[in-house]
Amino acid sequence: MSTSASQKCSEEMKRFAPVVLPPRILSVDALRGFDMFWIMQGKEVVLTILGLILGRIPPILQYHFSHPEWEGFSGWDLIMPLFLFITGVTIPFSVEKYTSGHAKYPFYRRLFRRVVLLWILGMIAQGHLLSFDLNKIHFFSNTLQAIAVGYFVSSIVLVYLPIRFQPLLTLGLLILYWVWMMFIPLPTGEGSGILLPERNWAMYIDELILGRFRDGTHYTWILSGLGFSATVMLGTHAGYIIKFVHKRNLVVLYLTLAGVICLLFGWLWSFHFPIIKHIWSSSMALWAGGWSYLLLAIFFLLIDVFGFTVWAFPFIVVGSNAILAYIGAPFLKEVLDFALVKVGLGTATQLVTPFITLISMWLLLYFLYTKKWFIRV
User: What is the CA radius of gyration of the chain?
Assistant: First the structure.
């Protein structure tokens, strides 16, 4: 290839290279975008392509692209805890100025604004808020609301509690939840350690407090907030590693070690407090946290150590506007489903819609990315 042709190719590549200003961490944006990719109909697109290539989806992939009915953990189960974990990674950077004696009023204003907006968006996404029908509204039923709880607790902790005590608090949240769920007898007189889908402490409290505003599933939210907070706190520890460890190879090493430790203790804990995502058990929080640490280590190694960013650019685009991706993709899919059925596409809609949704949503996010328009709450 001639020098001029090589230069022209290089210039073309630069047009598509990510332009993200510090203090953004590309690996974090990419991992967040990778997580949101599956929410944006990525799962359906991948399964469709694999089905066309393989003829049938192997049982192992069927398992990991679905949720276990109760106990157990699949790849698809990692989507929500990874989102919470990544939220935690960014908190040490976002609250830094509030830990050094600055006035706390701006911190609380920012904190409550974010919590309220996340809560409202969660109710719009899955709580039927826009139906304006009290009989359909679910007050607490969405990932964004779980993030709001974890973000609130973690931000307060990072501002007021010295760093050396923060891992102890994370462990304390998980132990408190374990003790409550496994050692305190249910008020129904059935004893302690009951972990049935319809009968456990977390479900009892949800039914008691939320009542008819529950979502009707076996997922629990209020008492499980202890687990949500611990998951976000696990992310903050990863954020501290990235922030304070200046040698990037050591960042990868420490993230990997943290991941292995979480997986080990999550597995050991599961023999008494099983891995159950529906109630966000302490063992599940550690197990999911372990995989989140390892994924972050891989992304950081490839992007921030080796500088290999081309493959990650589509994910970085998505991760830079993750909230819009999370809210917008399901809404766009509903609109497309309705429109394509109206034009007579029929059953083919189920095959076509995921591809159109994913491509259209990414192009919108890419347009916003090129304009440096990042939607934040």
Answer: 22
